[in-house]
Amino acid sequence: MMRETLRRLAAEDNLRTLPEIGIDGKYVVYEGRKYLNLSSNDYLGLSCSGLHREFMRRMTDGGDFLLSNPSSRLITGNSPDYGRLEMALSELFGGRAVLVVGCGYMVNSGVLPAVTGKGDLVLADKLVHASLIDGLRLCEADWKRFNHNDTGHLERLLAAHRRSYRNVWIVTESIFSMDGDRAPLKELAALKRRYDAKLYVDEAHGFGACGPQGCGVAAEMGVGDDCDVRIATLGKALASQGAFVVTDGLTRDFLINRLRTLIFSTALPPISLRWSEYLVRRLPEMEDRRARLREFSRLITGDAYRSHIVPLPAGENGRAIEMSRRFREAGYWVMPVRYPTVPKGKARVRVSLSAALTADEIRKFTEICASIG
């Protein structure tokens, strides 16, 4: 069965492999050649900013620290570094309660099953991330999908079902990971208020890169207080490890007792927590990097506020693979994205912009895009 499945995937141009690559600043090194990296989630370019050298000097001068963690947070893994990081994030988000978890997948697959139950309904955007879909599948609550960014469809679902359920959750991403477009958060917040629903926003691709002080798209749109749950990762724009939930104190306490992906997983190593805190406290000073991302987006898409994720449509898997190969020939590392990450027939090459790039590099890339077509 396994061989048959792999043969079928290969025949469909849909077989995945793990290329062994090295990272050299803003470049990928593969089979002895350097490529400009346009497939990284390091949106602020912090992994090649030199900040890690300053951080490591501080760690070396500051005494002992652990490179690993021996247990879950609820046993012996809740080091003081967790508290300092959560305090830094809470201050960034205006005093809201914060809970740090191992990774974004663990948050999205765990929070909704924890906070919902029988008698509840979840209404999720059609294009939410796979981790959220897996979370929905674990829910005892009922759930439905509304058409992507279609507030009219969402309102029809709310009007039809709100009175039949104890709680209704609206779930979306602020910036969608494969299309790079933004959710209509102001309209979603208005619907949340009109129908007395709850709002869950995944800011994985917005945190750090967007909004005042890097607080994300919800803050940029002025609807942060309407979000009952905001989640974001520390492993994308912050070039670190882990994820976190921004919510109220009661929900945080509840998650500590019900979030299985927190309770039954090993805590993050103190060195990662300290690196995250170090960057969180500097995030408000990085507006120049966020402005650079907006300028790069404008150069490619014509819209500075679309996002730093730019999909190049291919349609079929083979076309996406061929586009990726031609970009590599030109010196750029961009990867094909295929089913099940995107729907069948919607394969693409996904470009992720980084503040580590230059405007000249972006202009040259747009010229290559035009030649590839």
Automatic annotation (TrEMBL):
Source organism, top-level taxon: Bacteria
Keyword Transferase among UniProt keywords: yes
Domain Aminotransferase class I/classII large: start-end pairs: 34-366
Pfam families: Aminotran_1_2
Gene3D superfamilies: Aspartate Aminotransferase, domain 1 (3.90.1150.10), Type I PLP-dependent aspartate aminotransferase-like (Major domain) (3.40.640.10)
Keyword flag Transferase: yes
Annotated keywords: Pyridoxal phosphate, Transferase
Entries under InterPro entries matching the protein: Aminotransferase_I/II_large, AON_synthase_class-II, PyrdxlP-dep_Trfase, PyrdxlP-dep_Trfase_major, PyrdxlP-dep_Trfase_small
Cofactor(s) in the UniProt record: pyridoxal 5'-phosphate
Protein name per its UniProtKB record: 8-amino-7-oxononanoate synthase
